[in-house]
């Protein structure tokens, strides 16, 4: 189990994300209470979400809070990239097929490999 799930913050960002004061007309009006709850200074004007003052979600090098991570997700900014390198699978005939053995390199060393090796060392 992860100590801090990646989609809930706890990692640093390499960009500054900020918004200028004004309408956020690409957002539905129903988002206004949620954005306000997450700390954005917004209000509804004629059914359009408006930012009442310039707002900076985070700066380069900041460690994200849960609310900052949620805001970045709402605005479509990804801060983490997940990769999957399958080593085996069940085929349509119900047979188990191995794509790569543990000794064969698959490119980058995955975090799961490090955890497995650490666990083996502890035994």
- Rg computed from alpha carbons, rounded to a whole number of angstroms: 21 Å
Sequence stretches where pLDDT stays below 50 over 5 or more residues: 1-6, 108-120
For the largest sheet, list the strands in their spatial order. Answer: 2-4-3
Number of E-state strands: 7
Distance between the ends: 20 Å
Could you spell the SSE succession in H and E letters?
Answer: EEHEEEHEEH
Mean pLDDT: 77
Please summarize the sheet with the most strands. Answer: 3 strands, antiparallel
Treating each run of at least 4 consecutive H or I residues as one helix, how many helices? 3
> Which class best fits the helix and strand makeup?
alpha+beta
Question: What sort of overall outline do the alpha carbons produce when their principal axes are compared?
Answer: elongated
- What percent of residues adopt helix (DSSP H or I)? 10-25%
What fraction of the residues are assigned to beta strands by DSSP? 15-25%
Task: Tell me what the structure shows.
With 123 residues, the chain is α+β, with helices and mostly antiparallel strands. The protein is 22% helix and 19% strand. The chain has three helices and seven strands, in the order ββαβββαββα. A three-stranded antiparallel β-sheet has the order 2-4-3. A two-stranded antiparallel sheet has the order 1-5. The radius of gyration is 21 Å and the shape is elongated. Residues 1-6 and 108-120 have low confidence and may be disordered.
């Amino acid at each position: 189990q992860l100590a801090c799930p990646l989609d809930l913050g706890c990692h640093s960002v390499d960009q500054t994300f900020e918004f200028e004061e004004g309408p956020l007309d690409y957002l539905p009006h129903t988002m206004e209470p949620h954005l306000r709850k997450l700390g954005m200074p917004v209000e509804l004007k004629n059914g359009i979400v408006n930012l009442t003052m310039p707002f900076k979600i985070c700066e380069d090098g900041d460690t994200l809070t849960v609310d900052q991570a949620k805001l970045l997700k709402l605005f479509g900014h990804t801060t983490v990239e997940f990769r999957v390198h399958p080593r085996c699978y069940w085929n349509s005939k119900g047979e188990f097929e191995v794509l790569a053995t543990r000794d064969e390199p698959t490119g980058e060393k995955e975090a799961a490999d490090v955890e497995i090796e650490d666990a083996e060392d502890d035994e």
